[in-house]
């Protein structure tokens, strides 16, 4: 099969994007894993199909580099909005379906702003937290993210009994209250990625929840670039809402590959 794809990245978290509005791409896990392979294929953290949706601008299907369909991808969600604009499907604003529900998005001059799902359950164990921002995230606060062996320490937590077969993404988070730095070990990539949108969102909410910051609009420095998280806290309902993830969504190249 000859596949026409577009390569995008959001702060270094990179994706193979495919226009599947005609729903002709019946890709197997093996084919997706091959396409995402850094040596034998195109190379990417994930693969995203853009499909038609009856009541919304489009639908997003996300697959990790291991070839398996997974939960929400925040950076991929921002990249698919830029991709939809490149295809002429949307202009400045849009609304699309993803595995965790509906997402609104706005094109910015320097990227995309994506609304994330509300978060009303945060599990706290000392300086470690768990929350789901569209994907599951373990948060561990550290003094200096540059000193963490993310691939070793991240794999230990990701594969621990704590999260069973499903596992979790693992984020090492450092904050001075004014901004956040994080590094993420991503489930389904099984390695550190240069950014993780749902992880960045989780790190911002967790920092606020643990009173490590009072800001409700905060910059998050990932290895591959900077993102911003805006949110509101509802004390009566104990939930975070009106959560927006902003950051770059770059088109890199377009090509064909035999698969
Ligand atoms: N690897 C994640 C999905 C992609 C998350 C990440 N790329 C993002 O930008 O949110 C998981 O299986 O839970």
TrEMBL record:
<comment type="subunit">
    <text>Homodimer.</text>
</comment>
<protein>
    <recommendedName>
        <fullName>Diaminopimelate epimerase</fullName>
        <ecNumber>5.1.1.7</ecNumber>
    </recommendedName>
</protein>
<feature type="site" description="Could be important to modulate the pK values of the two catalytic cysteine residues">
    <location>
        <position position="137"/>
    </location>
</feature>
<feature type="binding site">
    <location>
        <begin position="74"/>
        <end position="75"/>
    </location>
    <ligand>
        <name>substrate</name>
    </ligand>
</feature>
<comment type="pathway">
    <text>Amino-acid biosynthesis; L-lysine biosynthesis via DAP pathway; DL-2,6-diaminopimelate from LL-2,6-diaminopimelate: step 1/1.</text>
</comment>
<comment type="similarity">
    <text>Belongs to the diaminopimelate epimerase family.</text>
</comment>
<keyword id="KW-0457">Lysine biosynthesis</keyword>
<feature type="active site" description="Proton donor">
    <location>
        <position position="73"/>
    </location>
</feature>
<feature type="binding site">
    <location>
        <position position="169"/>
    </location>
    <ligand>
        <name>substrate</name>
    </ligand>
</feature>
<dbReference type="GO" id="GO:0005829">
    <property type="term" value="C:cytosol"/>
</dbReference>
<feature type="site" description="Could be important to modulate the pK values of the two catalytic cysteine residues">
    <location>
        <position position="186"/>
    </location>
</feature>
<keyword id="KW-0963">Cytoplasm</keyword>
<dbReference type="GO" id="GO:0009089">
    <property type="term" value="P:lysine biosynthetic process via diaminopimelate"/>
</dbReference>
<feature type="binding site">
    <location>
        <begin position="186"/>
        <end position="187"/>
    </location>
    <ligand>
        <name>substrate</name>
    </ligand>
</feature>
<feature type="binding site">
    <location>
        <position position="64"/>
    </location>
    <ligand>
        <name>substrate</name>
    </ligand>
</feature>
<keyword id="KW-0028">Amino-acid biosynthesis</keyword>
<feature type="active site" description="Proton acceptor">
    <location>
        <position position="196"/>
    </location>
</feature>
<feature type="binding site">
    <location>
        <begin position="197"/>
        <end position="198"/>
    </location>
    <ligand>
        <name>substrate</name>
    </ligand>
</feature>
<dbReference type="InterPro" id="IPR001653">
    <property type="entry name" value="DAP_epimerase_DapF"/>
</dbReference>
<comment type="function">
    <text>Catalyzes the stereoinversion of LL-2,6-diaminopimelate (L,L-DAP) to meso-diaminopimelate (meso-DAP), a precursor of L-lysine and an essential component of the bacterial peptidoglycan.</text>
</comment>
<dbReference type="Pfam" id="PF01678">
    <property type="entry name" value="DAP_epimerase"/>
</dbReference>
<keyword id="KW-0413">Isomerase</keyword>
<feature type="binding site">
    <location>
        <position position="13"/>
    </location>
    <ligand>
        <name>substrate</name>
    </ligand>
</feature>
<dbReference type="GO" id="GO:0008837">
    <property type="term" value="F:diaminopimelate epimerase activity"/>
</dbReference>
């Amino acid at each position: 099969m000859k596949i026409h794809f577009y390569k995008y990245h959001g702060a270094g978290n990179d994706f193979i994007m495919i226009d599947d509005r005609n729903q002709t791409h019946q890709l197997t896990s093996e084919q997706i894993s091959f396409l995402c392979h850094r040596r034998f294929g195109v190379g990417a953290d994930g693969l995203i199909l853009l499909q038609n949706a009856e009541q919304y601008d489009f639908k997003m299907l996300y697959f990790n580099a291991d070839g398996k369909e997974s939960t929400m991808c925040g950076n991929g969600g921002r990249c698919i909005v830029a991709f939809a604009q490149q295809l002429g499907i949307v202009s400045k604003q849009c609304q699309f379906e993803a595995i965790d529900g509906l997402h609104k998005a706005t094109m910015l001059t320097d990227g995309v702003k994506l609304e994330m799902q509300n978060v009303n359950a945060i599990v706290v164990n000392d300086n470690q937290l768990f929350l789901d921002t569209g994907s599951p995230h373990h948060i561990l606060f550290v003094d200096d993210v540059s000193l963490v062996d993310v691939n070793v320490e991240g794999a230990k937590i990701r594969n621990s009994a704590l999260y069973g077969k499903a596992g979790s993404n693992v984020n090492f988070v450092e904050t001075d209250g004014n901004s956040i730095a994080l590094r993420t070990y991503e489930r389904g990539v099984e390695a550190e990625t240069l950014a993780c949108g749902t992880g960045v969102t989780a790190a911002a909410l967790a920092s606020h929840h643990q009173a490590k910051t009072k800001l409700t609009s905060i910059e998050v420095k990932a290895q591959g670039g900077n993102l911003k998280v805006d949110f509101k806290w509802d004390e009566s309902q104990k939930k975070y809402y009106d959560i927006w993830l902003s950051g770059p969504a770059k088109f890199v190249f377009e090509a064909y590959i035999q698969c």
